[in-house]
Write a structure and sequence with these properties.
58% of the residues lie in helices and 8% in strands. With 250 residues, the chain is mostly helical.
């Protein structure tokens, strides 16, 4: 029994090592589950040696476990859909799950977690990233819910990652949102996007808020021609204050 416990502990440590710092090794798309290839930062990018073959194999193996019942010991319910998951992967990636799975919580003891609120596709993408280091732009075929609008997709991933305490996912979502906003600021859905960004973030200096304010500042003259945007500014609140501060800065 002691040997088995020691073996499990060593495996857990190897997974943590492989899945938390690995990070510019592209994964083979053909070996991954449907949803897109993963991309792990490389240890060499941080001045560390490249992964050896055994660690590289472990990363690929973890990626293959996404939405895979093999060795699964946790049930994640996204709406009505059951996503098989693995406590060792969840706990090594997320402080939320580490606490839930090791603490005195009903969900952790039952190893069943239900997520009915928020975007189903954002939840799916966050779990996908936990296994593969990336998330797909395409909607998950397993989910019945419609996918999020292009402007809101990464905003909702960001908010969900915040809930699960996943800084790497937040960084990727922020980068993608910044790129999309460069050409989607013309969308009629921009005002709704701004509202959601501010509703889903609480920190005044949150980077997601800063990105929105910067792009609005750049195109303020054009945006001011829209009544919906004028109404948003007239409402006041954090966005109006942040935009005014940005205009004063020049």
């Amino acid at each position: 029994m002691a040997k088995k416990k020691k073996k499990n502990t060593e495996f857990f440590r190897s997974v943590i090592t492989a899945s938390s710092a690995l990070l510019a090794v592209p994964l083979d798309e053909n070996s991954l589950p449907t949803g897109g290839a993963g991309y792990f930062p490389s240890s060499s990018a941080y001045g560390e040696p490249e992964m050896d073959d055994s660690r590289r194999s472990l990363v690929l193996w973890i990626a293959k476990l996404f939405n895979n019942p093999d060795h699964a010991d946790v049930k994640i319910y996204i709406g009505e859909h059951e996503l098989p998951a693995h406590s060792v992967v969840l706990a090594s990636q997320s402080q939320f799950f580490q606490t839930a799975l090791t603490g005195n919580f009903k969900e952790g003891k039952a190893k069943q977690f239900h997520f009915k609120e928020g975007s189903a596709h954002a939840h799916w993408r966050v779990f996908e990233h936990m296994y593969t280091g990336n998330y797909s732009e395409e909607p998950a075929q397993a989910l019945d819910a419609p996918d999020d609008d292009e402007l809101l997709k990464d905003v909702r991933v960001y908010a969900t990652a915040e809930f699960f305490m996943l800084d790497d996912v937040k960084r990727l979502a922020l980068e993608r949102f910044m790129e999309k906003l460069k050409h989607l600021w013309v969308s009629e859905l921009l005002v709704g996007c701004i509202r959601e960004v501010y509703a889903s973030t609480t920190q005044p200096k949150d980077r997601l808020r800063s990105v929105v304010v910067d792009i609005v500042h750049d195109y303020r003259s054009t945006l001011w021609q829209r009544k919906a945007f004028q109404d948003l500014v007239y409402e006041g609140g954090d966005f109006a204050v942040d935009l005014m501060g940005r205009c004063i800065e020049g």
